[in-house]
Amino acid sequence: MQPHGGPPQKIAMPGVKNVVAVASGKGGVGKSTVATNLALALQSLGRRVGLLDADIYGPSIPIMMGVHEIFDPNTAQFPLDRYGLKLMSMGFLVKPETAMIWRGPMIHKYLTMFLTQINWGDLDYLVIDLPPGTGDAQLTLTQTAPLSGAVIVTTPQDVSLIDARKGLEMFKQVRVPVLGIVENMSYFLGADNKRYEIFGHGGGQKLAKEAGVGFLGEIPIDPRIAECGDQGDPIVHKHPDSPIAKTYLNLATIVSAEIGKVGAAAAELPTLNL
Amino acid sequence: MAAAALRPVALKKDGDDKLIIEWNDGHRSEYHWTHLRANCPCAGCREEHLQPPDPFRILKPSELAPLKPMRIEPVGYYAYKIVWSDGHDSGLFTLEHLRELCQCPECSKK
């Protein structure tokens, strides 16, 4: 891979201890749901957390966090604060029905602005919800943001795993440590307490083994997740005692431990003054 | 990603015409800056390399001055960008590519 286009140097974010990208190859695997609930779960572990929606074309964070206003960038104070999370999304600047028909350089410009011109303050974690795929947003963030690592979200079926592999390969090529794979929509727990594996079984685990990265856990299907997302009150915040919220807390604990382990691997490259 | 992936531990200058990269496996790579420029991986330069030489090409004034590297900057965790005295800066040399381009006596024999 030879990406080009004269990227700027890596951005310094001195107040932000760890930047975690939540990614997937495929869209619709629940990446924004995982990013939002992971951010809230990290927060409930007592950490200071920000959530940056890097999906410029289809931002989901405003709906999931219940922010329906459009703000004037000249007067608004970003990041917004919601449920104690610091938030930024393109969806705070444009109406939901507005199509962002932009080429790469504009995506690059706005993402760089979100990282550098917003006072994120002191954070233990900045979670970045990436758009699906391996395109401009991913390149900008891997070239300029001081990423500590990436979490790959997949669903159990092959059509999602194929694209997740591409995401894994991208992070490998740009040398961003993959903290592990989360399998979303793993199963549905019926009223009979039986486990229904609607999209198959073990895909995420198989992929993690194949790629030599950790398997971070299975998140079940629960209609309340979608309901909470649409109502703007994510399940980890609305039902903190639910089994799913506990799954997310477990995920947050593992992610935070994995970041501790990969610290050295993500060390900056040496520089030279000519 | 394997924790022991090949990565540079230090970059140095050797006079005005050479770059030295010391790697975490102990290898010491050397490169003439002209060699790096000739192997610029950007789309424009790669396209140019594929074309037959144009005998009627008119040089730009910036091409008449000796070419110098002005800056070498890390790109993410995986590449370096060189900014040249003629303003060219779009080539990203991945770490793997830099290792392949090594001109040390040992690698030059291969």
Notes on the structure:
The complex is a heterodimer of chains A (274) and B (110). Helix content of chain A is 36%, strand content 20%. Chain A is an alpha/beta fold and 274 residues long. Chain A has a single domain, classed as 3-Layer(aba) Sandwich (Rossmann fold), CATH 3.40.50.300. In chain A, strands 1, 2, 3, 4, 5, 6, 7, 8 and 9 form a nine-stranded mixed beta sheet that branches. In chain A, helix 5 packs parallel to helix 6. Chain A is globular, with a radius of gyration of 18 Å. The two termini of chain A are 27 Å apart. With 110 residues, chain B is an alpha+beta fold. Chain B has a single domain, classed as 2-Layer Sandwich (NE0471 N-terminal domain-like). In chain B, 26% of the residues lie in helices and 31% in strands. Chain B is built from five helices and six strands, in the order E-E-E-H-H-H-E-E-E-H-H. In chain B, the strands form two sheets. A three-stranded antiparallel beta sheet of chain B has the order 1-2-3. In chain B, strands 4-5-6 form a three-stranded antiparallel beta sheet. Chains A and B meet through helix 4 and helix 5 of A and strand 1 and strand 4 of B.
Task: Write the SSE topology.
The complex is a heterodimer of chains A (274) and B (110).
Chain A: E1 16-23, H1 31-44, E2 49-53, H2 61-64, E3 80-82, E4 85-88, H3 104-116, E5 123-129, H4 136-144, E6 149-154, H5 158-173, E7 178-189, E8 195-196, H6 203-211, E9 215-221, H7 223-231, H8 235-238, H9 243-262
Parallel strand pairs in A: 1-5, 1-6, 2-4, 2-5, 6-7, 7-9
Antiparallel strand pairs in A: 3-4, 7-8
Helix pairs in contact in A: 1-9, 3-4, 5-6
Chain B: E1 8-14, E2 18-23, E3 28-32, H1 33-38, H2 43-50, H3 61-64, E4 69-75, E5 79-84, E6 92-94, H4 95-100, H5 105-109
Antiparallel strand pairs in B: 1-2, 2-3, 4-5, 5-6
